[in-house]
Prior knowledge:
By secondary structure, the protein is an all-beta fold.
Amino acid sequence: MMPKQLSIQDAGGQPLASFDFGEVLPGTSSSNKALLITNTGDADIAAVSAWIEQTSIADGELKVTVGGVTITSTDQASATALGSLAVGVSLTGQAWFSVPADSVGVPVDTGMLRLRGV
């Protein structure tokens, strides 16, 4: 029996380990990358939540929306609620990388989208 499980996937339903935003110049944002949050387990998930962990946002920031909700949380304790998710069902979303205009460093995306389902 498979436990409850969430998967981050690309728009085609393939597992997504990371995003490739290409070069993003200061004062701009990358194009949006489509993503799916899918319940790949064998039980419904009553409460899905998400947060983005980032080492620093001084030279760039990962931004994500899922199901029309912008993920603003930066840790599990304050995770953004996304609702419930039945087995095999996906929430659609998008991710992009934004670099502040005053960035003097080389933009490095250290952001990681994290999920929790209970």
